[in-house]
């Protein structure tokens, strides 16, 4: 008993392994934690005691071993006696009692011999109950179960179809391996039975046999093939079910039955419909073209008789044609259309599963214009039971990310009632947030306002997060939301207050300088808020923006130092963080405090905190040993951090699997599902042509995500180093800076922040694809369909070379690629290697991996991730956005507020590819209303552009409130000339003439290049195209970083790796014409240097030389 | 697909288990209990719970959890919908689906479950087929069975299984041939503080009770079918006919069934038949609060509003209420803090009102939100959307049936924010 009990306490997985061992106990003894089972025995006992009285010889009965320790021994001889009697009524009574015991989960296996005798009983109800018993216990008592087989074999020949069918059902349900051949024979026979009902039963028996003995697969496929050809609706659903379980990869079996299945569909019973629709969705996704893929439109396979033949080769052919993009208009295959037409009426089904299956099919397969029909049906399902609601809302939430417009008219159906269960409320919030747009945000926010007052505090917390997401997504309402949230800070409920703090923190990161008063207010709150997450958020905010609250920050640190030992771990980590940041900015006041805090942390119980303290001490406190890093400590800690992207948790890979179980389950390992591999492969194959064009953008996200944490950490270390290359020493001795300059920097920070944000929104669509893509990729590597994946790789390489993050060096890219595509074991190995290099930090500057060329922004971002490993980001980690190299971005004034009557416009070149049109230079505009009145209807009126110049992307601004700031990005094609683009800006009352003149350095964008290609290209651009100039570098510009920083700040160039110490190479292309611009700078002793520029556009070359010279000599 | 089913009562006992494939130990339910504990309220248990080796999909109805264990990829709605169908079948068989009813009829339950699924895949879910296979227990039949030794189990394949109209059995015979149709509309609405409608829509169903001999073929047409925005049908309705002519044409199942459920397009203005005047206030620092509700009819098309019940979930700080009503009775449950006021018929001349004070817990701050008010009501002889049945015809049989149509409007989720 003892060891058994111990076994039962093991986790379920372990118990499962030991299932044969402890199964009896598992059933007879209850494992419910309440122990409520006890009462069951009591309830049952009198009944059984009564029986015991009538029993003749209670002594010599064997006892149920499991029960004996528990209650009185239960003896079944009365039941045996009854079963042995001649009277059917007694037998029936006995069987009923036995079945009742089975239903309660009691073990009645010892009655097996007595029961099995009655399998041939004439009474049909006794017989049925015996079947129930047999199916339940045959697996445990295989030998005895064999006794019953002959009865079933007789039953298979019975003239009554019901008896034939039920004989087959039971025979196939008995999980005894010895009878596999008999089962096989029976199934084959039944598959050609007269009665469709028996054939249906045969279809059901197929997966049963398959799960018992996988070797029968080939024979079973034959049966499936035969049954697939069956024309009765009764069989169709069951056989497709069998197909899905046994051989989902044999899609060729479907070809010739496809049209028949489509046509039968409406008459099949509802459960069969679900299975068939799901199968057809999969089929169509692999065999037809994506109707929404307008770019590389493919021709349909002209072979219309395709479904009539079972030819493998023709299929192959189709696959091949699908890979060759042809520029022809998309024509939907008639068979594709047939499927859509025949499933549409099923949206009207009363069965929610059918409706969902059709919705899923339409979502994936219908042309964009037709998908809308499913919205209505899905909204209808929301009236159903709450479980149905839950699943439907999950699906709506993930669908609405991709197709917002579809559900927008139904927004009101997602309004929340106070009587909804919390999980439904949260999902509805999610959907509403996804549906939020400029037009409906005011209605949504008004709804949110009522929700905030709810008594359900979890729901209120969810609402606050939703407001935060709306605020990040829709610029117009950001300030309104922020104000609202600040008001919530004075809420009496601590949870509400804490949640607001966390959300405000995220919002403030977008524009910290404007809101120092809020930061100050939050600093005061730290005395009252006890929720650790909120405390941590406040501390982080104060640390990050300590320059805005220079007086309060040290005081907060003092208070926190006092209470350090009593804080939660995340708060402690943030205290250390705050201390470090303050130490770096204001060491005079906080040196002692910092040391005190670090000392406390040194002896903390949590090793994370001890580690953090050790790490930070090394970084910030200068000692002889740690000289290398501590120089950059300030940059490490006070690097610009992009604002977190608040996005739906439904975004991501799960979009692929609408309607599947795991869409309803957060964070389920997909590995849990033994999904047929064939399915994956096919999906992937189809998706390839669909999404290949987004790959260039997706590359960085992909690699960053798929890397193991250690790897990314070490990478960030390397990037810290590389970042330092590009930054000027101006920043490194910043402490001596005057206030004036600090302000300037602040402004710059703000700018770049905005830029990040704008890019995030721009890229979001791409990101979504990325995730899908990644999934596909992983699958492809696991399925080892190597040929297709390599072609994919190469295509991605090509496209990524044109992509935006050109500033990244080749080596780094390669290593990333390796890590993203390598098999898991390889990846692990690599991670290990990196770990090693991480360990010997002291000599890492000599390690070759760190000699990568700069990509400052990416680095600061992933660095940020690591520094934020302080678990601050509880939502999604901000995705790695690619940003071009930059030092400082210069802002130009377009319209002064005096001439603009209160409206001031600034612009800067944010050096990002302008997403709708890559031949345009992206110009970031910022409109500020300094007047007392609101400005209405800001728009661009008739641009007077030079020939060939184009301009686009400006969205009209409806209203600009006093004091409000609006930003927008404009794309201008300057035709590679530095001539100004002139246009008018019109407000409701006035018109302003504007002119944007680009510096030549902004007309180019960086490209990736290896040293060899650089030399080769340079060789092509000699003679007239080469311009050389000598110059003398002043003292302060002689360091590596300084040179790179200066050059990069003046022109949007990408660094090319170079073997020589005194040589610097940069490459770029002109944005509009795509002409190569190659810059070489060779330094010599004594500050002498030679600048060479190779460019086929001589005008650009000459002007660039002038600009770079100027930048390097002043 | 569905591996096993466990029935769990509200106190956490597993009182029935059924396995369609090999046996899954009931210890798998521990994961469910864990989730249940976390959810603290029964409706908040997530319908899908992942465990290391299985997924548990559950529905909660009639204070019983139906927990299905699945092991492979299944559309979750498939299982949820099936479980609801199981509950419906039990209700059909036993009148209610309580724990007691299931325990009393455990053998029938087991037989029914055995027929409904084969190897975890639905086999027969149509109630008329099931009833032919396993007859529902009645007192008379039990007596007869014990005397004659006959059984509840049919020994022939139900005719419905093979026919193209699986929902109808052959050889139906009635002395009085009748067909009744109930058009029931429910108003879902959210009314805001000031009395304006935030959101309102009408959901309707047509429930039928058809007792006709033979194989009748019915058609039902509407005066104004355009009103129906979104419809879902019983499988018996011919979709093509609806698409082309907006006529419901069908061979009805025998007995009670839901012919159609529909949604009236939200573009149409929804008439709100009642209004609520409310004045609920808590004062800071005071131990008393004011509570005042008046309900009155509005846009009822001359019909009386009946069966009116007003319920409200009050905040936790309310200890007790001292109210007087001009009509009907009110109850206040000090544990759940729900006040419920049963008004009955609303007399437009003398509006019912409920006035009084609430005693609050002293020392606690006043709640942020005023309680929402939920209202139930019924209006007979009125379909609020204006939907009207034009005519009902029968083909295929010679006799003349008795036909009846009834209209009713009810409150669905009718909530007033205060």
Automatic annotation (TrEMBL), chain B:
Q: What is its main location?
A: membrane
Family, according to the entry, reads as follows: Belongs to the adaptor complexes medium subunit family.
One record GO biological process: vesicle-mediated transport
A GO cellular component annotation in the UniProt record: Golgi apparatus
| Any one Pfam family match given in the protein's UniProt record, by short name | Clat_adaptor_s
Q: Which UniProt keywords apply?
A: Cytoplasmic vesicle, Golgi apparatus, Membrane, Protein transport, Transport
> Which organism's genome codes for this protein?
Scyliorhinus torazame (Cloudy catshark)
Keyword presence, Magnesium: no
Provide the protein name.
Answer: MHD domain-containing protein
What membrane topology does the UniProt entry give? Answer: Peripheral membrane protein
């Amino acid at each position: 008993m003892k060891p058994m009990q111990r076994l039962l306490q093991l986790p379920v997985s372990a118990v499962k392994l030991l299932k044969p061992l402890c199964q009896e106990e598992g059933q007879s003894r209850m494992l419910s934690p309440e122990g409520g089972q006890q009462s069951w025995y009591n309830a049952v006992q009198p009944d059984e005691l009564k029986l015991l009285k009538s029993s003749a010889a209670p002594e010599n009965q064997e006892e149920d071993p499991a029960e004996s320790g528990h209650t009185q021994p239960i003896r079944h001889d009365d039941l045996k006696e009854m079963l042995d009697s001649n009277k059917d009524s007694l037998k029936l009574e006995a069987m009923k009692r036995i079945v009742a015991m089975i239903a309660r989960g009691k073990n009645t296996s010892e009655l097996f011999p007595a029961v099995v005798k009655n399998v041939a009983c004439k009474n049909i109800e006794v017989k049925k109950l015996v079947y129930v018993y047999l199916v339940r216990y045959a697996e445990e008592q295989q030998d005895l179960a064999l006794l019953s087989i002959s009865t079933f074999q007789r039953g298979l020949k019975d003239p009554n179809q019901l008896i034939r069918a039920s004989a087959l059902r039971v025979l196939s349900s008995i999980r005894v391996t010895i009878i596999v051949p008999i089962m096989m024979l029976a199934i084959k026979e039944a598959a050609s039975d007269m009665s469709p009902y028996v054939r249906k039963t045969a279809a059901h028996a197929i997966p049963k046999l398959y799960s018992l003995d996988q070797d029968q697969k080939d024979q079973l496929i034959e049966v499936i093939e035969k049954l697939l050809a069956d024309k009765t609706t009764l069989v169709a659903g069951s056989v497709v079910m069998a197909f899905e379980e046994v051989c989902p990869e044999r899609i060729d079996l479907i070809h010739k039955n496809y049209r028949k299945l489509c046509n039968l569909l409406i008459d099949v019973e509802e459960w069969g419909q679900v299975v068939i629709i799901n199968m057809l969705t999969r089929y169509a996704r692999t065999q037809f073209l994506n109707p929404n893929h307008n770019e590389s439109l493919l021709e349909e396979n002209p072979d219309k008789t395709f479904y009539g033949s079972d030819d493998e080769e023709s299929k192959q052919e189709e696959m091949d044609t699908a890979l060759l993009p042809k520029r022809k208009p998309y024509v939907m295959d008639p068979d594709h259309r047939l499927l859509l037409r025949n499933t549409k009426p099923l949206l009207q089904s009363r069965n929610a599963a059918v409706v969902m299956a059709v919705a899923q099919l339409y979502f994936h397969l219908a042309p964009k214009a037709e998908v809308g029909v499913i919205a209505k049906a899905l909204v209808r399902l929301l009236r159903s039971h709450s479980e149905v609601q839950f699943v439907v809302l999950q699906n709506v939430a993930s669908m609405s990310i991709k197709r917002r417009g579809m559900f927008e008219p139904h927004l009101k159906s997602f309004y929340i009632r106070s009587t909804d269960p919390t999980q439904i409320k949260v999902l509805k919030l999610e959907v509403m947030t996804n549906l939020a747009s400029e037009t409906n945000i005011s209605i949504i926010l008004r709804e949110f306002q009522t929700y905030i007052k709810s008594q359900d505090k979890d729901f209120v917390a969810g609402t606050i997060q939703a407001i935060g997401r709306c605020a990040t997504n829709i610029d117009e309402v950001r300030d309104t939301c922020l104000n609202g949230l600040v008001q919530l800070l004075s809420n009496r409920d601590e949870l509400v207050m804490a949640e607001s703090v966390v959300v405000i923190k995220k919002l403030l990161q977008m524009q910290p300088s404007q809101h120092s008063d809020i930061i100050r207010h939050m600093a005061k709150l730290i005395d009252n808020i006890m929720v650790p997450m909120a405390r941590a958020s406040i501390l982080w905010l104060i640390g990050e923006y300590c320059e805005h609250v220079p007086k309060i920050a040290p005081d907060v640190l003092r208070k926190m130092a006092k209470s350090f030992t009593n804080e939660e771990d995340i708060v402690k980590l943030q205290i250390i963080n705050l201390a470090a940041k303050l130490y770096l900015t204001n060491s005079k006041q906080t040196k002692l405090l910092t040391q005190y805090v670090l000392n406390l942390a040194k002896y903390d119980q949590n090793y994370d905190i001890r580690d953090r303290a050790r790490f930070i001490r090394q970084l910030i406190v200068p000692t002889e040993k740690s000289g290398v890093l501590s120089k950059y400590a300030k940059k490490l800690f006070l690097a610009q951090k992009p604002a977190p992207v608040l996005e739906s948790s439904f975004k991501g890979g799960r979009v692929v699997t609408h309607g599947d179980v795991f869409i309803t389950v957060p964070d389920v390992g997909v590995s849990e599902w033994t999904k047929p591999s064939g399915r994956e492969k096919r999906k992937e194959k189809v998706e390839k042509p669909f999404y290949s064009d987004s790959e260039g953008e997706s590359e960085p996200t992909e690699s960053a995500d798929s890397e193991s944490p250690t790897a990314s950490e070490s990478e960030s270390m390397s990037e810290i180093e590389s970042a330092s290359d590009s930054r000027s020493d101006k920043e490194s001795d910043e402490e001596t800076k005057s206030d004036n300059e600090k302000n300037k920097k602040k402004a710059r920070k703000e700018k770049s922040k905005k830029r990040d944000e704008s890019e995030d929104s721009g890229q979001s669509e791409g990101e979504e694809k990325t995730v899908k893509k990644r999934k596909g990729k992983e699958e492809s590597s696991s399925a080892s369909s190597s040929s297709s994946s390599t072609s994919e790789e190469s295509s991605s390489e090509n496209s990524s070379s044109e992509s935006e993050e050109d500033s990244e060096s080749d080596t780094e890219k390669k290593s990333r690629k390796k890590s993203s595509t390598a098999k898991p074991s390889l990846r692990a190995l690599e991670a290990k290697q990196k770990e090693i290099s991480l360990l010997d930090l002291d000599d890492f500057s000599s390690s070759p991996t760190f000699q990568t060329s700069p990509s400052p922004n990416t680095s600061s971002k992933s660095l940020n991730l690591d520094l934020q490993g302080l678990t601050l980001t509880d939502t999604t980690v901000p995705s790695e956005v690619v940003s071009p190299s930059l030092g400082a971005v210069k802002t130009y004034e377009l319209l002064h507020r005096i001439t603009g009557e209160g409206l001031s416009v600034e612009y800067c070149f944010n050096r990002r590819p302008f997403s709708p049109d890559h031949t345009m230079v992206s110009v970031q505009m910022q409109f500020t209303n300094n007047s007392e009145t609101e400005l209405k209807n800001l728009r661009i009126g008739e641009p007077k552009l030079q020939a060939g110049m184009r301009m686009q992307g400006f969205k009209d601004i409806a209203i600009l409130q006093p004091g409000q700031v609006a930003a927008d990005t404009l794309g201008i094609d300057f035709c590679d000339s530095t001539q100004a683009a002139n246009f008018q800006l019109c407000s409701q009352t006035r018109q302003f003439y504007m002119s944007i003149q680009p510096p030549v350095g902004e007309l180019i964008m960086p490209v990736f290049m290896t040293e060899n290609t650089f030399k080769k290209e340079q060789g092509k651009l000699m003679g007239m195209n080469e311009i050389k100039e000598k110059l003398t570098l002043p003292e302060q510009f002689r360091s590596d970083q300084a040179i790179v920083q200066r050059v990069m700040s003046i022109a949007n160039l990408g660094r090319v790796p170079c073997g020589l110490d005194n040589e610097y190479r940069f490459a770029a292309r002109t944005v509009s014409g795509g002409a190569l611009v190659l810059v070489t700078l060779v330094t010599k002793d004594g500050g002498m240097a030679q600048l060479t520029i190779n460019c086929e556009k001589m005008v650009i070359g000459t002007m660039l030389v002038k600009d770079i010279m100027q930048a390097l000599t002043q | 697909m569905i591996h096993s089913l466990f029935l769990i009562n509200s106190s956490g006992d597993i009182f029935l288990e059924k396995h369609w494939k090999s046996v899954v130990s009931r210890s798998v339910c521990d994961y469910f209990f864990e989730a249940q504990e976390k959810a603290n309220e029964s409706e908040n248990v997530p319908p899908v719970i992942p465990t290391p080796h299985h997924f548990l999909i559950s529905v909660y109805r009639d204070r019983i959890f139906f927990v299905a264990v699945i092991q492979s990829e299944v559309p979750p709605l498939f299982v949820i919908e099936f479980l609801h169908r199981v509950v419906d079948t039990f209700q059909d068989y036993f009148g209610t689906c309580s724990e007691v009813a299931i325990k009393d009829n455990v053998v029938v339950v087991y037989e029914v479950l055995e027929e409904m699924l084969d190897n975890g895949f639905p086999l027969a879910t149509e109630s008329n087929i099931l009833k032919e296979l396993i007859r529902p227990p009645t007192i008379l039949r039990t007596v007869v069975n014990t005397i004659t030794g006959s059984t509840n189990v049919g020994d022939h394949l139900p005719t419905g299984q093979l026919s193209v109209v699986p929902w109808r059995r052959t050889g139906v015979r009635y002395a009085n041939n009748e067909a009744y149709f109930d058009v029931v509309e429910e108003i879902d609405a959210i009314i805001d503080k000031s009395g304006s409608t935030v959101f309102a829509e009408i959901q309707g169903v047509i429930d039928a009770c058809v007792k006709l001999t033979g194989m009748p073929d019915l058609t039902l047409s509407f005066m104004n079918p355009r009103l129906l925005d979104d419809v879902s049908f019983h499988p018996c309705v011919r979709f093509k006919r609806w698409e082309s002519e907006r006529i419901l044409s069908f061979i009805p199942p025998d007995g009670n069934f839901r012919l159609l459920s529909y949604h009236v397009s939200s573009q149409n203005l929804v008439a709100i038949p009642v209004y609520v005047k409310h004045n609920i206030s808590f004062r800071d620092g005071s131990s008393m609060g004011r509570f005042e509700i008046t309900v009155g009819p509005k846009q009822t098309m001359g019909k009386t509003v009946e069966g009116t019940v007003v319920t409200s979930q009050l905040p936790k700080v309310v200890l007790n209420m001292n109210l007087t009503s001009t009509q009907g009775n009110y109850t206040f449950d000090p544990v759940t803090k729900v006040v419920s006021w049963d008004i009955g018929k609303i007399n437009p001349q003398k509006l019912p009102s409920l006035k009084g004070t609430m005693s609050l817990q002293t020392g606690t701050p006043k709640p942020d939100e005023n309680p929402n008010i939920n209202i139930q009501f019924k209006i007979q002889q009125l379909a609020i959307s204006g939907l009207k049945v034009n005519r009902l015809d029968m083909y295929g049989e010679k006799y003349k049936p008795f036909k009846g149509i009834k209209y009713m409007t009810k409150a669905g989720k009718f909530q007033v924010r205060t």
